[in-house]
Write a structure and sequence with these properties.
The protein is α/β, with parallel strands linked by helices. It is 44% helix and 16% strand. The structure holds zinc ion (ZN).
Amino acid sequence: MLKLSIALAFALTASAQVEIAVHINNNAGLASAQVNKAMKIAGRVFVPLGIAVRWSICDPACTETGSVPTFIMGLAGPQLEMPVPAALGFAMLATGKGNRAAVSLPRIEDFAEANSVPMESVLAYSIAHELGHMITRSKEHSTGVMRAKWDKENAMRMGQIRLEFAAKDGAAMKAALQSRVSPARVTE
Ligand SMILES: [Zn+2]
């Protein structure tokens, strides 16, 4: 009983780190150096939130294993039809467990080129944005990473790896993950 209380208290502490797993499905055949760079940048965006991302690349199919919340991110080429004009990606919140999203590499490349920032940075922030939707299971938009449509200023910050989640979005994500993670830990 004591052990369980300690585990619960630890899980609910704001400073406690929570872990998520993200599987990258590289459908568009993006060079692995670029995928790795994007994963590294996207991981850094979650560090200030106390969310550690465990990345893996699955090819050709992704299987869900493990005890941490798992999200599957498809990197898509020109064959992917985007539901919203000018969107860089979308999360499929109503499909299955709501843990799948796709980002459009042609759209990301266009945005990166138009704003003179590295493609890998825009890919990283697009992944972070869709993870934000999936973690909170919400289509809501906000400022920073969760802005509905990024502008030049946002793009510049992406290039510097300085675009951040708004504090309230970070807190909502952390709370959502803690509520998903802690009961499993307590019953272990
Ligand atoms: Zn969005």
